[in-house]
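A student in our group prepared the protein record below, which I am reviewing. This is what I was given:
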Amino acid sequence: MRLLLTLLLAPLLTGCFASEGAGGSTGDAKGASRLRVALAFPPAEGLSPYGADATILSRLGVTEGLTSMDANGTATSGLAASWRREGDRIWLFTLREATFHDGTDVTASAVAASLTHAAEAEPVPAALSGVRLTAEPEGPETVRITTREPDPVLPLRLSSPSLAVFAKKAYGAGGRVDPVGTATGPFELTRVTGATAVTLDRYPGHWGGLAQSPGVDVKFIADGSARAAALRTGQVDIAEAIPVAQAATLDEATRKDTATTRTTGLLLNTRSGPFKDPALRAAARRAVDTSVLADDVYEGHADAGTGIYGPAVTWAEGKRKPPTGRARAGNPEGAGIRLATYDNRPELPEVAQVLKQQLEKAGFRVELEVREYSRLESDALGGGFDAVVLARNTLVDTGDPVAVLASDFTCDGGFNLALLCDKDVDRAVARAEGVADLTQRQQAVMAAEAEILGTDAVVPLVHQRVITGVGDSVRGALLDPYERTLVGTGTRR
């Protein structure tokens, strides 16, 4: 059936990836051709950098921040060539020479204004959850950033895709940010076709040198089988998030497995409905068999859930603490729950179906709802479901492990799908945020994880390995465990 579906989908994609760049060019003087990329997630927020769409822009090489993050999770230079700390709350960032896509210079005042817009956004970007900062120019090339409380990981925080820097013309009424022609990366966003496609052209003035590819033509294809078919039939050069069920249909050379910091979890609504009761949350957690999910649904391309952080966060296992304060599991007695997930990641509906069976066996009545992600997020954040199956990259927002705890599990968190508000959790997260020493910070993070798991607001299900399809002719695709990058200056075909 999977093969038949793939064959049926292939003709529908014919012609979808014709080059769309300026002048219709398919190459440049050096022979490189435009890249054709299939992404799984269409923009959910109009390509706003302050939400989930921020990673779309960073993965495509459109946006940059003051800093970036290397493979070891360390802050490295971005638009800032260097930085230093003055006291506990002040950091000075010295800018490199760079220009925005509209031709204006990247100056200290422009950077300060951009960061101020981010800090005042509603809702606040996840990278700034629980953080208050002010940014001011100090001369033409230096930006002074002051935080209300000491923030020892500010350079790492500023590497977040949601804190990318934009030109003045990007900012419109109502807090809207238009990334078309206003960012700084090696590729300029030149056209947006609703939620179906975007076109990028090489930006000739990039500070890091000329990109090898003349441009990138991107289609958003939520159906994973269709993405795999497009890669296999040569209609795309790179296809992200290949479904496990489609992995075997790709040649081994084009199938790239990357261990990631992404954890799939079951988030339970702690504010309303049956899971407001800790005893029923404990019953749901007890009902879940994660080994079945890793072995059967993911066919060995994932590890059974052990916590909020998985094996890709290599330091976590040795410091993990047992959950504290868990309630005793109660009797569901036929309690009805509304379970939701999204189909942009094709394994998730299968995961949800298995969970439905496990929860029903434990005594719950389960109604399952599957949507496309952009149609799910607002309802989930508003408490419209009793439980949500979510795949979450735990280090994508800042690279700092505390950030996901603050955004996802504290009272003021901007991405708190569990709607958790627990004073002990908030205190534990706040303690971790205040620790500067790396080893001690990691220990504090594990203590906060134990407090969160003790509430049973989240049940870790699996830790994922992402499969990316990369065509034989492609060189320089950027695959990293944080899923922030995909296309860069050296990516070409």
Observations:
- The chain has a mean pLDDT of 91.
- Residues 438-455 form the longest helix (18 residues).
- The chain is about 25% helix and 20% strand.
- Residues 476 and 491 are 4 Å apart (CA to CA).
